[in-house]
Amino acid sequence: MRYIYSVIALFAASLVISSCVDDYTVANPPALQDAPFLRLSATGNSSVKIVAQPLNKYTAFVNYGDPVEIKVSVVNAPGIIESASVSSSIVEYGTVTLNESSFAAIKGKTSGDFTFTFTPSTILVGTADRALNLTVTVSDSQVDEKGESAALTSTLTVPLTLVNGPCLSDGLAEGTYIVSEASGNTDGGDPFSLDDLKANSGSAFSAEKVVVVVTKNRPGVYTFTEVTGGVWPVFYSTRAKPTLRVNLCDNTITGRTGFVTAGSGATARTFTLDGTLNANGTISMNWSYVRNDGNTPADPATGSYTLTKI
User: Fold this and answer.
1) How distant, in Å, are the alpha carbons of 200, 268, 270, 292 from that of 265?
2) Is the previous residue joined to 159 through a cis bond, with omega within 30 degrees of 0?
3) Chain-centroid distance, C-alpha 274
4) Of 167, 243, 266, 296, which alpha carbon lies 20 to 30 A from 157's?
5) Which residue, among 234, 252, 200, 231, has the nearest Cα to 302 in the 3D structure?
6) Has residue 297 got a pLDDT over 80?
7) Looking at residue 201, what is its pLDDT?
8) Which region, left, alpha or beta, applies to residue 169 given φ > 0 means left and ψ of -120 to 50 means alpha?
9) d(Cα 4, Cα 16) in Å, to the nearest integer?
């Protein structure tokens, strides 16, 4: 009899435990899995540049002209990839089209890549920089404990700037450079050397170091605080300082049209600039100028110099 009572008690206890487990499961359904994790990159087209920022943020630069393809990488989607969308905040500037076949190839998987195309408008007036946002979303196919949709969506909002090329090159380091070599002539044909610049620098430079600061406006465009390698601050300090912009295409440097004139009115001077970003990181530059009013002196100042980063 005692054995029978023990069996009954054990059975009753198991029912209570089972009931508690069922109640706990109902009250505490399994947590949803993480939302899809996305990354963005270019597909090799030189007309688009994707710049990765901290915390998985991105900015994009696209040249006016032909459509460009951008790749979205779904690094991990444990809830299974279900749908995607792409859009442009200002369709008058450019439209986006999802590559449906590329997305179909990864739908139902936990990772994979798809692409979309951004097409700049061909009817915009002028080629000034124009800003818009691209929005990319990817949703999974998770369901809750009732079998109802509990999909999670990840969104990338990407600031994009339409730019007037010519290139989107990187590689020129921002910062302070010293003029390590210099030669040429001042107005009238008198020659100068780096030693002449240092000897006559006065308060233009400290510790006899002729310096130029380079800043990056965006991929492919940089500003030099002074494009003559010290000649203007040393010999022509009363003239407008030629703080001008250059283009970088691979390792070739040229003056940026519309941004190579110092001063205004009758005393404005427009510079011709060209140079090379060398393999060792130094910059070799050549420069010359003309007066915009036509009164360029005989044998106007011209020169060459090398910049070495401090």
Assistant:
1) 29, 6, 12, 8
2) no
3) 24
4) 167
5) 231
6) yes
7) 80
8) beta
9) 19
Considering only CA atoms, which of 47, 43, 286 is closest in space to residue 166? Answer: 47
Q: Are the C-beta atoms of 287 and 302 separated by less than 8 Å?
A: yes
3-state class (DSSP) for residue 206? coil
Which CATH number is 175-309's, of 2.40.128, 3.30.70, 2.60.40, 1.10.287? 2.40.128
| Superfamily per CATH, domain 37-163 | Immunoglobulins (2.60.40.10)
- Domain regions of the chain by residue span: 37-163, 175-309
What would the pLDDT profile of 193-251 be if each residue is shown by its tens digit?
999 998 888 766 765 688 999 999 999 999 999 999 999 999 999 999 999 999 999 99
Tokens of 263: 């001063």
pTM of the model: 0.83
Res 143 pLDDT > 80: yes
CA 174 to CA 248: how far, in whole Å? Answer: 13
Measure the CA–CA gap between 50 and 47, rounded to whole angstroms.
10
C-alpha 48 chain-centroid distance: 10
**Tokens at 245, concatenated:** 């912009």
Record the tokens describing residue 175, joined without a space. Answer: 């910062």
Are 241 and 248 contacting, i.e. CB atoms less than 8 angstroms apart? Answer: no
Residue 257: both structure tokens together: 């049209």
Mean pLDDT over 1-28 rounds to: 50
